[in-house]
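<instruction>
Derive structure tokens from the sequence
<entry> Chain with its tokenised backbone below:
===
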Amino acid sequence: MTYQEFIQKVHLITGLDLESYKERQMERRIRQLLHRKNLDFKTFYAELASNKAAKEEFLNYLTINTSGFFRDEHIYSYLADEVIKNLLKEYARLNIWSAGCSTGEEPYTLSIILHEMGAGLRAKILASDIDPGALEKAKKGCYHPRQLEKVAPGIKKRYFQYKEGCYYFRDRYKRIVSFQQQNLLDGLTEPVPPMQLILCRNVFIYFKVEVQEKLIERFSSLLPAGGYFVTGCAEMISQPQRFGLEKKIPAVYQKVPAVSPD
């Protein structure tokens, strides 16, 4: 079985379209995994097709669940001081989407920011990811001390409960976050309401350019004029005006009003 045959078959059993990812990078990761397991494509596919645990492990390996609380602190400072502050002046309630939320650090960071601003009851956060294993960890909300290295002691004390070597995000602050399994490459399988703020950070970097642009267009279509879209700091939208966006600072874009033809 060739690599192309393997990824086509994997798409059928996982729903993950590996052809949308940067080919060299993805093929290298998969071949490294096969080398460690001492398997070929045919044998490994048979294992994935017959073993649910192996399939979930493979999916978790590919989706690269790397996150942390207040990752890129300057971005969260800008969101709190400029973006969310201004949106709260305009909207009675906010809809926020954390797309590719991994194990929950990003949506829970947003929950902390909103509650610190006294706006915890004025927002709903949709947190989505393709990996069911990551979502289960996010719902549990249990984090190793090293994952909270950038969390101030006072915030840590208010929002987390330490128990048996783990920091648990407190239930009262989870209530504004809802988790949903979602494959961004397959489109929106469940209706998503208009959003005032969308974050899709450190996800685009793994996709081909044409796939990135398709996703940006989709996200932009869900934003009203004045809404915001946030990418990872290593990601850049080329010519954001093509998507009705304007760069405010690196990684943060604002939806601009549509220009009516004369």
In short: The mean pLDDT is 88. Strands lie at 94-99, 123-129, 142-143, 160-163, 166-169, 177-181, 197-199, 228-230, 245-249, 252-255. Residues 3-63 form one domain. The chain has two domains: 3-63, 73-255.
